[in-house]
Write the structure tokens for this entry.
Amino acid sequence: MEESDDTQIMNAWRTLEEATKHCDNHGAYESSLMAHRHPRVQAFWTKCPQCNEEIAEEEERLRKSYEMLVQSDPGVEDRLRAMMMDESGVPPRYRSARLKDWQGKNPAMQEVGKTLQTYIERFDIALEQGKSLIFVGNPGAGKTYAACAVVNEIIYKRDHSALYTTTQDYLVRLRACYNADAEEREMDVFNTYVSPSLLVLDEVGRHKDSKHASDSLFALLDRRYREVRPTILVSNMSKDELKEYLGEALVSRLRQDGQMLGFYWEDQRK
């Protein structure tokens, strides 16, 4: 029998040791050092159980308040989701993108669609494991549409943050930090793209970048990898071209627990 998502998450952790810790609010408590089956996930000591209980009570209070708000104003949920969509960076052309509208009659296209639908439905697991995806293949094969559909459905169905951007937009925003009248710092921009649960980075390899730009791109992807945050890369390059562009080590990291999907079929725009 296939394990549930919650069971898989719980089975991923084990207790290394136990010790008595001190909480400033509640005094001494028993803590466990928890380690993940994936070595890149940092081990941690469990927090004060009384603090955890208070946090859970506060979350429950907020949940009930939100439910009462939705009952009194049914449109508030749609407005919140619309606000999340506005902040997602998904271009207006793809705001209504859904996988059910993308899967054509092509068997290979349908197979990729099934893989992406599973990714969405099990995104809690993908997030817990840092499972990234790489889209490579022909121009016009629907890579951007599919990536935006994943963002849309994760925001609407899974209640996670997701952000879409192109490589060029990310680098232009970074460069703007060096202007005399810059309104953002480089680290602030960098953290904007590190923090979402899911980042979609489109048009990878489309432009010839400077050494600084390449280093900035590597730093972003490597940081998300180390923090176990999934990334979807979208490129018209072949697998070998992408390895040469990003470096085999980085591509290998992104494929760890993840997948590279080939979009090799006719131009869907036609």
About this structure: The chain has a mean pLDDT of 82. The longest helix spans residues 49-72.
